Amino acid sequence: MRGRWVRVLVVVGLLTLTVVPASAASGAVRRGGAPCSGKAETSEIKLMTDWYLWAATGPFAAAIEAGYFEDEGLEVELLPAPDPSAPVKFTARGSVDFALSYIPEVLAAVEQRIPVVSVGTSLRVLQSATAYWPDTGISEPADLKGKTIGVTSDLQTQVYLDALLKAAGLTRDDVTIVDPGFESTVLLAERKIDASAAQLVFTDKVQFPNLVGDTPDWFLYTDYGVPSDLYWLLIIANSDFAKENPNTTCRFLRATAKGVDEYISDPEAANELIASENDAFSLKAHTAMGEELVDFWKADNGDVLKQDANVWKQALKWARDLGFIEVTRKPGAYFTNRYLPSNLK
Known about the structure:
This protein is α/β, with parallel strands linked by helices. The chain is 34% helix and 17% strand. It contains twelve helices and twelve strands. The protein has helices at 58-65, 68-71, 86-92, 103-111, 155-167, 184-189, 201-212, 239-244, 246-265, 268-277, 283-292, 309-322, and strands at 5-11, 14-19, 44-48, 75-79, 98-101, 116-121, 128-132, 148-150, 176-178, 195-200, 217-220, 234-238. The chain is globular and about 60 Å long. 50% of the residues are buried.
């Protein structure tokens, strides 16, 4: 561990983690050259996470702690999302360079001609689910009829719930929906809602036992109409930024890939950092959630960050069949592997 943290600031509610970069890598940028073939076009990078720092952002914390971004001539700021819709919005208007988001958000953005593109996938396995307590009379999705469900405003949760309800022969008219914000787990733990559509199995296995000493059951969305190989967490960029800064984008991804390996093999430093900046969970809880994610960063063949066009084709067909989007373009309109370093392609 190199200990690259130099200051921690709170700026209008956003936690900013800043690393002092080393001198940029040498080499001129060649027009049409391969990504990473020259020095970074810009060294100051803002990355908006999908929430606060937590296990899902472990590789980025690990890359900072190990100095991998610094090695690429990059100064990286991690900005927690102020609300679930912020990552796409901030990326589209250029307020951040990269963000963590989800396939439904990218599908909707591209349909609306918002200039974002997925340049890599970090967590490759979708574990999103509706959680419920079996002792409330719920055992199958049809039992949600007449129940109160916590549904956050992020698009992925909205769409996944619609898929679940459709599979059960229900519509939103059959349930009562409330927006729990970021408190869905607490509200379900306290039995203030009957079910929560905004849950992640890997976090629930840690959080609920800590809160109430029990674990709910889940309707995993991939069991109810959502494609089973859908990626969960994406790294998105402003399309124009990526085109104008191919070396920066490639170097950012190369450092991130090293951060994945670091977080898998030696997560202690990253988890300690995460826990110091996100006290919603203890270090033990952060560590436990990270352990639940060990198998989700890489594909079975070892691919990291690389995206498969077939996954996007299935996502597009599913979204079109669900009525979530009307226009489908070629997968290349939504994602690209062009900025990955050559060893990851």
